[in-house]
Amino acid sequence: MATHLGSESPRAGGKRRHCRGNVVARFTASRITGRGFSRGTQVLSSHLSMEAMSFVTEDRKTAQESTFPNTHTFDLFGGVDLLVEILMRPTLTMQKKKPKMNDDLVKDCLSVLYNCCICTEGVTKSLASRDDFVLFLFTLMTNKKTFLQTATLIEDILGVKKEMIHLEGIPNLSGLVQSFDQQQLANFCRILSVTISEPDVGNDDKHTLLAKNAQQKRNSSPSRAEVNQVTLLNIPGFIERLCKLATRKVSEATGANFLQELEDWYTWLDNALVLDALMQMATEEAEQSSTESSDESSLATSPLRHRLPQSMKIVHEIMYKVEVLYVLCVLLMGRQRNQVHKMLAEFRLIPGLNNLFDKLIWRKYTASNHVVHGQNENCDCSPEISFKIQFLRLLQSFSDHHENKYLLLNSQELNELSAISMKANIPEVEALVNTDRSLVCDGKKGLLTRLLAVMKREPPDSSFRFWQARAVESFLRGATSYADQMFLLKRGLLEHILFCIIDSGCTSRDVLQSYFDLLGELMKFNIDAFKRFNKYVNTPEKFRTFLTQINSSLVDSNMLVRCIVLSLDRFESQTEDVKVVEVLSECCLLSYMARVENRLSFLFRLINIINVQTLTQENVSCLNTSLVILMLARRKAKLPFYLNALREKEYTEKYPGCLLNNFHNLLRFWQRHYLNKDKDSTCLENSSCIPFSYWKETVSVLLGPDRTSLCAIASYIDEPFMDLDRDLLED
């Protein structure tokens, strides 16, 4: 999306604004042909680019307040339609030999169109509505000289297009992609990211599970994004080339001021288009100045304008690695996940990223570079921050519920897992046994171990902690593995998490939620973890602080509550083990959860903070945690006691029927949501070690219509307050 960059400063154009309107009027009023037209577009592009540049620099406000900007005048007199007609004219001829347009003319036409998109409201949407023009633009990408201008215009157009395009509709897409060099493919990933991601539904009620289920019911066929993902996977060599792009090394800049230089330039270059243009200029300058000295010491001491090309190349590489990782991440989360996983393993993506970790992904920075990321992971932030976050999201997607997660370790670390299993006299996990050792990480440390090391050094409120914790948690998710837990416990992860929750002063809810979830996976069914917990939380003050953090937001901490309840239930059945008995009697956390009044308190609040209309992917875990508490009670024939306690709580709070009616509706929704989703039901079974058949059976018992049944919710709601017939799910 390169704005035409002339020899003048972007700010200098404002002094001559009064004369540029005449150029625009003259151009659009006449139909110049041949050399005259080419020269006209060149002049026009140069003039309009000054106005466009003001939108991506400090002059933005001035330009936006202009009553009749030049680009608006150009569009008003039909200039945009004229350029579209000129660009597409060769495709409309009936001649066998298509006329070829001058490359510079095409570049200038595209530059003017892009400047109009930036400055004039409605131009981009107008171009996006023309499917023929959008698909035609892709054909221009075959020419390397016009590739950059074409790619940037396409990206801008697709960003506002109402309907996602079909990649299958692009003429000879496979040949087009295969013709790209690596740099072009990196640029193309920016476009692809728009075509394979499901549209963002925003932060409204469309995020609720009720709305999502209704949408899925209406649209049972694969979405356009899913179809586009399949199209990409069918392009020969596509994934292999992305893996090479993601893992290729970047030349390191020298000089102590490099990071500050990078930050200063990116503050100005808040639009990637300008960066692309500068990169193109830098490349051209490098070709013209091959005789200049490239000595590193001279680069470090030369003025910023002399060091810019090298700095820009590094930032450029980082920015496009972000896009490549994003595309791989989306494909990993799609319906073809297993196919993608197989290819990423085969092309050694993880070992390649491991080799880049210390030199590029997580270099040692000064404290000032630890920028706390905003609440929205899609916010406008520096390339370095975006790169780190996208890298962590990729690791999370790669490890989550997949046997390939062991590729994050090296051979020595895999041997360590085997030794842990042998010492505990338990069989090795099948996925570990089946791991292809030729595809794991190289070097002294695997990627997971490197991640743990930087995680411990991160400032308390840094949002990198959120993504780091999510990535590590994904390694543990699925069927609980004692060896995996011990591998992380031996590296001090539990103590680090507890320090963050109790002693660090961390106040970020996102970070705390991620740490609660990670702690739950780390401690679940692991008696050694509870023993370590008790050793760290060794004073009443620390334990009170820990409980305060849990109780401050059950939506954030309920997965940890579930872990404690499940672990307690298992340990109570292992009283023949002396070690278990010892920890049960000494651990303050297990003793706290063993008291029935505390379990009931959690149950009341878990049911009370959600209802069918507000259920989302974030808080549905509260419903499942409440179900876990009741399933374990049912196993011990105590379900009537818990249901009666809920009824008594209602009357104490003077809201008879409120809690139980709400819970009844939640369970009806649970049946509709989970009974038709194999993946979700498998996750529930693996994470709880409770067969899904028992989940279904317990829900059916609770929803039983027989009011004489002591295990049916209906039996505990008095007739005047019963509201079970109304189908809230259809509201």
TrEMBL record:
GO term, biological process aspect, one: ubiquitin-dependent protein catabolic process
Single GO MF annotation: phosphatase binding
Superkingdom of the organism of origin: Eukaryota
A UniProt-annotated Pfam family: DUF3689
GO cellular component: Cul4A-RING E3 ubiquitin ligase complex
Name of protein: Transient receptor potential cation channel, subfamily C, member 4 associated protein a
Organism: Scophthalmus maximus
